[in-house]
Amino acid sequence: MTSEDYHQTQEKSSLGAASPSFAGRTEAQFRALLSELLEKSKERISKEKLLELLEEKKRNVGGGYLTDQGALFLVGADLGVTLSQPDQNPVHRLSEIKPLQRNITVLGRLLTCSPPKKYTRKSDGRQGILSRLLLFDQHVTLAATVWGSKTNELLTIPELHPGSLLKISKAYVTSGIDNSPVLNIDDNSKVEVLSEKGDESTRIKSLEEQIIFPDEHFEDGRRIIIRGGFMREGDQRQYLRKDGSHGRLFAFGLVKPEDPSKKVRIVIWDNDNPSFESLEDGEIVTVANLRAKKVGFSGNHSLELHGDDSTYVVEKWQETQDWFKRLIETSLRTLDNSSGGQTNLPHTASSSSGLHVLPFITRILSISAAEEDNATDTLAYALLVDYRKRKISGTFRDKAREELIQNFSVDDVVLCKPDSFDEIALKAQFSIGGSLVKVRPKREDIQSSAALITKISNLESGSIVSVESMALSEPLSREISTKEGMVRRTELVVGDETGEIKVLGWRTLGKRLEGIRIGTRIFLRCVEVQSYASKKFLVLKNFSRVEISSKG
After folding, report:
1. pTM higher than 0.90, yes or no?
2. Positive or negative CA dihedral for 337, 419, 411, 245?
3. Which of 46, 141, 400, 545 meets the CB 3.0–4.6 Å disulfide criterion with 435?
4. pLDDT of residue 317
5. Quick check: helix, strand or coil at residue 139?
6. Which residues contact 91 (CB under 8 A, 6 or more apart)?
7. Of 474, 471, 475, 455, residue with least CA distance to 521
8. Regarding predicted confidence, which is higher, 5 or 512?
9. How confident is the model over 113-168, as pLDDT tens digits?
């Protein structure tokens, strides 16, 4: 149920019905008044004695009409204390939260938040974004859902960090799938990050106090925050879900720094947080929001720690929060475009936009130097692919260009640190040294350049492919009239055992086809399949290469 759907349901409820939050509210009010009376009383009186006076006042004066709170006011008057009026919206403990409560205020620490996602309302098909939080206090962990623009507001608070003390006001509660309470935070709600110096912070242990280490005992099902030395066990890999779709897991170990023999295995499921990609062996990290799970068979069982899309590395929180910001911007832009609206939200993360571009891992599918077309051009290009099969066009200049050409080859797996990255157009800019760093080449979840090789009869419009072929014509260049004026285009007919197709090179890219003779065997690496009037053709891109076969 979404925020809007909930409000519509509540408006239809009986106005005469008793408030389901009454018990929890008066309990919280009573505790607050009791503390106030103990603090203000000039007489040295214990809590137990005060409760005895309260019961006596109810028996002798109340006549069945005094509530505990009412009796406290009378006891306070006897002790010379005037109590303040009860707060109509007291701060609730997380353990007091019950479904159907409305307009409540809670206090808890942030354990984790999931990356923002798009959702569609069942009532009218409208789309929005949401994020799911986990809050904790001394006693329980509570799930919360943040709806709409409040997602952007909350996840981008500069002061927000793991363990932040949050005061959430004007929230409402619904039931989760397992009938447990879920706190809902919408545009009407208020979220405050409180100072740790206040009295409230002493009621809830910090995140740091919840941390365990690899040699400690943990029970099956327990929620875990663990610290240790990172040890890479294997690469990220895909798995097949029951519904036939593919997911991804990342397994690694954490060891106790003082005793590497003390080790625990961690498996993270379907988590795209790029900060995991940058972890190095031996690095001391704190991994939050894991659950202990018993694994094994034939009577041999052990405990592993499993995480989901909201699991993160505490020390990499800034990178995680930057990732959240980029996801929000991309989601909002997509929602605006789908509704025909416009937005000025930036979608390119860069140093100038105030967002740090997080490193990500890709495989190099093609490398092309612009000097092949224009000796005065100092750029180089590469086509990159990540585990989601997103093909990213990289432009390299200055030191980054020099290193790309000298130190890297097709099919290298690299950690990318671009100056900027447009996640919608999938274009990255590189200029400084160290923009690419080689990592372990064994990444079965990232396709290799061989996966692009396609027969002409199997070409699909809009795809990027590589084609082994033979030149069936001499290259022909001519001026073509376009909206931009006259533009030079070079074309060449190629073929394989399944068919023939034309290759086009526009502007300076056409130089890559010049000098090819009929009968020459050529390998067209990373070209785009386009179509017009039901006829397909191949188009050279900046990152494309035309390689002459030595067998030709």
Report:
1. no
2. negative
3. 400
4. 93
5. coil
6. 28, 105, 106, 107, 167, 200
7. 471
8. 512
9. 999 988 887 777 778 889 999 999 888 899 999 998 898 888 888 899 999 999 99
Neighbours of 86 (CB within 10 A): 16
Q: How far apart are CA 6 and CA 102, in angstroms?
A: 10
Is residue 289 within 8 A of residue 310, CB to CB? The reply is yes
- Fold (topology level) of 212-318: OB fold (Dihydrolipoamide Acetyltransferase, E2P) (2.40.50)
DSSP 459: -
Q: Structure tokens of 2?
A: 């979404």
Structurally, at CATH architecture level, domain 453-548 sits in: Beta Barrel (2.40)
pLDDT tens-place string over residues 54-111: 888 878 775 565 677 777 788 888 888 877 665 556 788 888 888 888 889 999 999 9
Contacting residues for 550 by C-beta, under 8 A, at least 6 apart: none
47-57 vs 22-40: helix axis angle to the nearest 10?
Answer: 120
Sequence-distant (6+) residues with CB within 8 A of 336 are 342, 343, 345
Return the ∠ at Cα 500 (arms to 497 and 502), rounded to 5°: 145
Cα separation, 109 vs 206, whole angstroms: 8
3-state SS assignment for residue 23: helix
Query: Looking at domain 360-438, does it have CATH number 2.40.50.140?
Result: yes
Instruction: Quickly count: other Cβ atoms within 10 Å of residue 243's Cβ.
Output: 5
Beta bridge partners of 486: 481
Label residues 188-223 b or e (16+ Cβ within 10 Å = b): ebebebeeeeeeeeeebeebeebbebbeeebeeeeb
- Alpha carbon 140 to its chain centroid, in Å, reads 25
Helix%, strand%, coil% for the chain, nearest 5: 25, 40, 40
Indicate the SS3 state at residue 302.
Answer: strand
The per-residue pLDDT for range 294-334, each reduced to its tens digit, is: 776 555 667 889 999 999 999 999 989 888 888 887 777 76
Asked whether the CA dihedral 99, 102, 104, 108 is positive or negative, the reply is positive
Phi-psi region of 286 (alpha: psi -120 to 50; beta: other; left: phi over 0): beta
- Residue range 98-203, CATH number: 2.40.50.140
Helix axes of 68-78 and 47-57: crossing angle, nearest 10 degrees = 110
